[in-house]
């Protein structure tokens, strides 16, 4: 991973439901076969199908005269993906990343992250923004970028990354969507793949990955393929299986082609509908065909109110009409006709810049953007198949010293979950129980090394150190 800061993993202590030493276990042939299956599949954690649309909102990590400063816990409850803006390059570089919470200590911020995660929300870290170009020119810069971001993810237990590179951070000089030639594009792809692989290894779960490019970087590839035009397309193509949401900024934009050949202006229902369908259906470029992403990986990204961006704002009723048509719940509101009759009821959701702006009463009423989301998707959510939420678990720190903490992501009641620890030879070395919501277990009698921890039959890689 190249250079990594000497940053210790934090041991966060909660009121425990129990402080347990793992008990030693014998092993039989049946147990060994079970362990071999765990070891075979421990590296495979496929992304779960998205069951419901998401409302994604950014929170400014700075004080602003025009909007209120909000903590994670103060965001409207309808926002389930909370994105901290931004991780920025250290002064003097455009590749070594840093993030320092404003208005609170690191521990206070971490406590807030864990509190909203316990409430079922995800907390992401956005990288870049409009004023912070990030360009990776060689493998050293790639490695520093990846390791510095990974450090931040682990320190604050973020659920994922949002990539918002602007200001010519990515440009194209040739190549194709499937075979790019520009080093910054290739190196960023490699860095994100490395971060995701390490995150899965350390955190025991898939890292959420969202992309939030400007229109020129994506749909702009229909007009030209070079410079910033279409520059995100090779990145999206290479990481399409890992991307959870693509939420193009449908604002601060010039006019753009739709896949029908028409030209559409920002700030209109036609713009929202045409540009959203373009990234679902795909389109032709001089760099080859961009194959669209599934609708459930696409979110509509807009400003919360007129002052939040330089253009592209859509008043609530117009936005609602556009979204109803997009999701197959309403009539066509303008000139653009969807290629897919019936629209996209499985659309991935909506993204807002920003929650701080949406909170303003002067912005068509407080949380008017969140209200549009609720009005549009409440029918989709209500008519979806009812599912019993799957259990998920968090372990930390990893690597762990003498104590390992385990917590359920979902409410547990008095439920008991069996814990089983194996070494890499498939030998069960200890067992125990997770009682209630959270517990901690002692590892002090174990030899340092790598282990597989099974929590209710879900495997986690665990590194034990002294």
Q: Please provide the count of β strands.
A: 21
| Number of spatially distinct domains | 2
What structural class is derived from the secondary structure elements? alpha/beta
The CATH architecture of the largest domain can be named as Alpha-Beta Barrel
Instruction: Quote the beta fraction.
Output: 15-25%
What is the terminal separation in angstroms?
22 Å
**Residues in helices, as a percent range:** 10-25%
Descriptive notes:
- The protein has 466 residues and is an alpha/beta fold.
- The two termini are 22 Å apart.
- The strands form 5 sheets. Strands 2, 3, 4, 5, 6, 7, 8, 13 and 14 form a 9-stranded mixed sheet that branches. The chain has a 4-stranded mixed sheet with strand order 1-19-16-15, with no helix packed on it.
- Helix 3 runs parallel beside helix 4 (183-203), helix 6 (269-281) runs parallel beside helix 7 and helix 7 (316-326) runs parallel beside helix 9 (368-383).
- The protein contains 9 helices and 21 strands.
- The longest helix is centred in the middle third of the chain and has 21 residues, at 183-203.
- 25% of the residues lie in helices and 23% in strands.
- It has 2 domains: 19-44 and 390-464, Immunoglobulin-like, CATH 2.60.40; 54-383, TIM Barrel (Alpha-Beta Barrel).
């Amino acid at each position: 991973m190249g250079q990594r800061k000497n940053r210790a993993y934090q041991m966060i202590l909660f009121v425990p439901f129990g402080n347990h030493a793992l008990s030693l276990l014998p092993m039989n042939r049946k147990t060994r076969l079970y362990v071999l299956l765990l070891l075979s599949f421990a590296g495979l954690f496929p992304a779960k199908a998205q069951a419901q649309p998401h409302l994604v909102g950014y929170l400014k990590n700075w004080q602003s005269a025009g909007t209120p400063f909000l903590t994670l816990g103060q965001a409207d409850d309808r926002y389930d993906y909370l994105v901290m803006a931004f991780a920025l390059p250290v002064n003097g570089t455009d590749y070594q990343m840093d993030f320092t919470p404003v208005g609170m200590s690191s521990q206070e911020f971490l406590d807030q992250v864990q509190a909203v995660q316990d409430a079922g929300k995800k907390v992401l870290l956005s990288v870049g923004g409009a004023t912070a170009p990030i360009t990776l020119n060689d493998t050293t810069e790639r490695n520093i970028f990846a390791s510095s971001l990974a450090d931040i993810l682990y320190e604050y237990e973020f659920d994922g990354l949002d990539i918002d590179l602007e200001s010519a951070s990515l440009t194209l000089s040739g190549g194709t969507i499937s075979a790019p030639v520009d080093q910054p594009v290739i190196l960023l792809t490699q860095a994100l793949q490395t971060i995701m692989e390490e995150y899965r290894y350390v955190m025991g779960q898939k890292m959420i990955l969202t992309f939030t490019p400007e229109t020129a970087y994506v749909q702009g590839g229909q007009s030209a393929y070079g410079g910033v035009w279409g520059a995100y397309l090779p990145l999206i193509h290479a990481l399409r299986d890992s991307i959870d949401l693509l939420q193009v900024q449908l604002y601060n934009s010039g006019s753009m082609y739709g896949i029908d050949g028409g030209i559409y202006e920002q700030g209109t229902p036609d713009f929202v509908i045409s540009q959203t369908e373009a990234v679902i259906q795909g389109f032709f470029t001089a760099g080859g065909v961009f194959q669209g992403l599934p609708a459930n990986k696409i979110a509509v990204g807009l400003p919360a109110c007129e002052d939040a961006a330089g253009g592209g704002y859509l008043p609530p009723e117009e936005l609602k009409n556009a979204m109803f048509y997009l999701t197959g719940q309403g009539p066509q509101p303008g000139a653009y006709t969807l290629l897919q009759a019936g629209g996209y009821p499985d659309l991935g959701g909506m993204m807002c810049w920003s929650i701080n702006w949406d909170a303003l009463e002067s912005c068509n009423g407080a949380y008017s953007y969140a209200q549009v989301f609720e009005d549009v998707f409440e029918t989709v959510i209500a008519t979806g198949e009812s599912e019993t939420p799957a259990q998920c678990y968090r372990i930390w720190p990893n690597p762990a010293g003498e104590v390992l903490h385990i917590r359920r992501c979902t409410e547990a009641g008095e439920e008991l979950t069996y814990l089983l620890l194996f070494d890499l030879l498939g030998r069960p070395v200890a067992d125990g129980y997770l009682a209630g919501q959270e517990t901690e277990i002692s590892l002090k009698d174990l030899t340092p090394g790598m282990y597989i921890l099974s929590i209710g039959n879900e495997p986690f890689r665990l590194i034990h150190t002294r």
